[in-house]
User: What shape does this take?
Amino acid sequence: MKGAELLTLLVASFLCLSAAIAAQETCPADLDAKCGDGASDDWEGEFFPGIPKIKYEGPTSKKPLSYKWYNAEEVILGKKMKDWLRFSVAFWHTFRGTGGDPFGAPTKVWPWEDGTNSLAMAKRRMKAHFEFMEKLGVDRWCFHDRDIAPDGKTLAETNANLDEIVKLAKQLQGETNIKPLWGTAQLFMHPRYMHGAATSPEVKVYAYAAAQVKKALEVTHYLGGENYVFWGGREGYQTLLNTDMKRELEHLANFLQAAVDHKKKIGFNGTLLIEPKPQEPTKHQYDWDVATTFSFLQKYGLTGEFKINVECNHATLSGHSCHHELETARINGLLGNIDANTGDPQVGWDTDEFLTDISEATLVMSSVVKNDGLAPGGFNFDAKLRRESTDVEDMFIAHISGMDTMARGLRNVAKLIEDGSLDELVRKRYQSFDTEIGAMIEAGKGDFETLEKKVLEWGEPIVPSGKQELAEMLFQSAL
Ligand code: XUL
Ligand code: CO
Assistant: This one.
């Protein structure tokens, strides 16, 4: 091919690609009736032809499209793996993720997408989502209201759009026996929420958010969801110079109390979950981490009404390990759900990657086992394909890999428990408290005068080794 022809071809392919990328953009929030006109929810045949139902083949399998460690029906530590793990697919990452980032256009061109945010497209996408879950063998899903249905020009129109999609989801759920693990309201993307939703200084925005959560709670209940999540993406501040923090926190508490009241009013028995995150998109988010969220719940008399959804990547953003956040939630009776993902140690933001670190998964599963599972919560893959992963099969491979990693973590915890050495090391470390004086202190009766007398009698204590390296060796030997 001559140079000039090659150049023409390159320019033409670039223009085609740009057109495809431009067509990927969604309709504006105040949806113009023309946006997506002509689109159809019809689809001939399967959305994922050539992808089989994913089966367990064991650790020797070399097939990417098979489970090596996750064997749903296998009993481990007295429960089926599927009941320990209660996996769910996050609709937003899996079906609304475009691969776009602040520097670049979308990269994913899924065959079923027509580039619109129309109702017809929302229906077609929902059908693809159910085929995806069935093939994967996952029987739960998670969604934001606005992921699944487009905004209308008014709240009434938006709610009508949502009802139409929810009706289809309900029908597909009936055909597949798949249910929501949780639903939530998207209170961060629309410009009206730029200063926050429940913490916006504008009363009409607070009211709008209330109306949106009311509807999202009702829809989650209607679909048989087992939990409802509050992630306060913009409930925080960019600068304290223009912020009345006390007032905003009080508004947030009142908002959450009203959600509790509405949940009871409609007879929704699902668990309400708060998902902490320290920042992004705000400079400071009020639900910074588990401990901050717990103290907020205590201060406003909301404990007992809420549990916590720990997201591993949010944990690391707050300067903790995921294990720390899980244990903080667990020992306070607050561990309700896990958004299983991970960040990148060299990157400072929420990269929402599938968790594939076996050591990390073993620590996560040790908290889950100590908690005797997460039900009615479970695991949500709040994780997305990398921008550069553009094959349809990558959607499956990512989930299989994430599920196998958690399953492997569970198997490792069973090994650690069976071996018993690590538990014994911890028990021994505290055995001095299994004495008369230790029991007195633990019962809150260790007054300082009695303890001073004891010290005078005992002399200088002999302090044993912490055995950290041995603990690490025992842990590693199970991986
Ligand atoms: C954002 C995040 C959300 C919540 C649901 O970081 O984790 O997707 O899980 O709103
Ligand atoms: Co999340």
The chain is about 45% helix and 10% strand. The first strand starts at residue 75 and ends at 76.
